[in-house]
Design goal:
The complex is a heterotrimer of chains A (232), B (228) and C (49). Chain A is mainly alpha-helical. Chain A is built from 7 helices and no strands. With 228 residues, chain B is mainly α. Classes of the chains: A mainly alpha (232), B mainly alpha (228), C mainly alpha (49).
């Protein structure tokens, strides 16, 4: 392994190591929960996914403010990376939540506070990225994405409180103090593992965005190249 | 502040005159709202009890669907003869453009209320108690304002993009979920009676949403319109 | 009689646990793979131009 590979991918490697350890302990070492039985083990991956999805969207929000404030392309690239990583984690979160709901409540979906809020959050940020894909011109695209991301993120607490009044059935949040220490360890390992995975995703995606920008500004359009080929 | 207010009022007069001259468009939006009410009753079927129970929700969805048309139109006409570019040449604050458009949109959406609710009374068999009429229209106005502020911002953002007709609802619908929830609940309470005095808290939530997005829209609008 | 009473523990459920973990792993892997693939495509494009 050369040093460049390590420099590019250290976060991904750390993430894999932590996630393998966390999932192993969560699946085979930690004891089964008293009421939930084995199904409780979904929580060791579900809760860290939820934390990190929210972390990604918060990162996207901060990057959006930075992008509007300074107009620098690094912020814009970070915003895209964080939004995309957040969408991936949030999508997985909904699948896990659905499986958990089926196993414990007997239904695939329930309109409970956090489930509904995360669904809306996912739809909001999918909207932001699709708006971006339609916008033309790099600067215009950056400002539209940033404005849409800020507007979307501000909506989250409103949706949360609204759905909470609307109805509720979700598990009461448990802080690590109330659960068995053997259950805390896989939770922590997976949380940090997913955090490093998210860092790797964001950095990779941001780099890709910056590279595309440079390429888009200097390279010839696709069609022009295709015409050139037979002459060469 | 007073400069922003006077500019907003001047532009608002222009926007309202524009709306008034294009009465046909406003009528078309209202007819579209009525049409969606008819479509809902076809979907839910001849069971009049189910229709009465869902009446508030159907009214709000009709408002939402008509709002996407009205909002998209409000910026399309500005771009049509490059009118917006003309306004931007004047020493006008971008915030004033946003607020005048948002107020004009709120007013035209609020004007749908009497027609749609009358149709709702006829089609869905709901009874609007005289005591609740004021509450009903106040909630409707708050909901219209809640749709208009983010809707005007998004309409300005998408008005020049290729797939604007798809993008506006895609962005707006998830965003206004709190408005939909709160106004559905509050309007249902206005129609069926409010023994637990819950309507106030829903109205408060709508008011919070309105305050947040009316201020955010004014702050963010300059970034949207700059290169417009 | 008491033996037939449900114990209050959700029995089984391993299939749900396995499904949740494997879908998460596959999802993360696919996204990572798509990132690497897109980066490579971009690098190729840059080499050509």
């Amino acid at each position: 392994m050369n040093s460049r590979f390590l420099r590019d991918h250290w976060a991904g490697l750390v993430a894999v190591a932590l996630l393998v350890a966390g999932c192993y302990i969560g699946l085979f070492v930690a004891p089964a929960e008293r009421h939930m039985g084995q199904v409780q083990r979904i929580m060791y991956v579900h809760v860290p996914t939820a934390w990190n999805a929210l972390l990604c969207f918060t990162c996207a929000f901060v990057a959006a403010i930075g992008s509007l404030w300074t107009g620098r392309e690094r912020w814009d690239a970070t915003l895209v990376g964080a939004a995309e990583a957040g969408i991936v984690l949030n999508g997985l979160l909904l699948v896990q939540g659905s499986l958990w709901g089926r196993a414990t409540w007997g239904v695939w979906w329930d309109w409970d506070v956090r489930l509904t809020t995360s669904l809306i959050l996912l739809l909001l940020f999918i909207g932001v990225l699709s708006l971006r894909s339609f916008a033309a011109g790099t600067e215009r695209r950056a400002s539209l994405t940033a404005v849409a991301a800020i507007v979307a993120y501000v909506d989250v607490p409103l949706v949360y409180f609204c759905v909470r009044w609307w109805r509720s059935l979700h598990q009461i949040q448990s802080s690590p103090a109330t659960v068995d220490p053997a259950m805390v360890l896989p939770l922590r390992l997976n949380a940090f593992g997913l955090m490093f995975a998210a860092v790797w995703f964001i950095v990779r995606r941001a780099r890709l965005e910056l590279a595309r920008r440079r390429g888009g500004e200097t390279a010839l359009p696709e069609r022009a190249k295709m015409i050139e080929v037979p002459h060469a | 502040m007073s400069e922003l207010r006077s500019q907003t009022l001047t532009l608002l007069a222009k926007d309202l005159r524009l709306e008034w001259r294009a009465k046909a468009r406003l009528v078309a939006v209202a007819v579209f709202g009525l049409l969606s009410l008819v479509v809902f009753s076809i979907a839910v079927g001849p069971d009049s009890k189910a229709l009465t129970a869902g009446a508030a929700g159907f009214l709000v969805i009709a408002l939402l669907l008509s709002s996407t048309l009205a909002l998209a139109e409000s910026f399309r006409i500005e771009h049509e003869r490059r009118a917006l570019e003309g306004i931007l040449l004047l020493p006008v604050r971008p915030g004033a453009i946003f607020y005048s458009k948002a107020v004009a949109n709120t007013l035209s959406l609020a004007m749908l209320a009497p027609g749609l609710s009358l149709f709702g009374v006829v089609l869905y068999g709901v009874e609007l108690q005289p005591a609740n009429v004021v509450n009903f229209f106040a909630i409707w106005f708050l909901a219209a304002a809640g749709l208009s502020a983010p809707g005007t911002l998004y309409a300005a953002m998408t008005s020049q993009l290729r797939s604007r007709d798809v993008l506006l609802p895609l962005l707006l619908f998830p965003l206004v979920v709190p408005v939909l929830m709160a106004s559905c609940k509050a309007l249902a309470l206005a129609l069926t009676g409010d023994p637990m005095r819950q309507m106030q808290s829903w109205a408060l939530l709508l008011l919070c949403f309105d305050l947040i997005y009316w201020s955010l829209g004014g702050i963010l609008f300059p970034f949207v319109i700059e290169e417009g | 009689m008491l033996e037939n009473m449900p114990s209050g523990v959700i029995a089984g459920g391993w299939n749900f646990v396995v499904a949740a973990y494997s879908i998460t792993a596959i999802g993360l892997f696919l996204y990572a793979w798509s990132l690497i693939r897109r980066t490579r495509q971009q690098a190729k494009k840059e080499e050509k131009s």
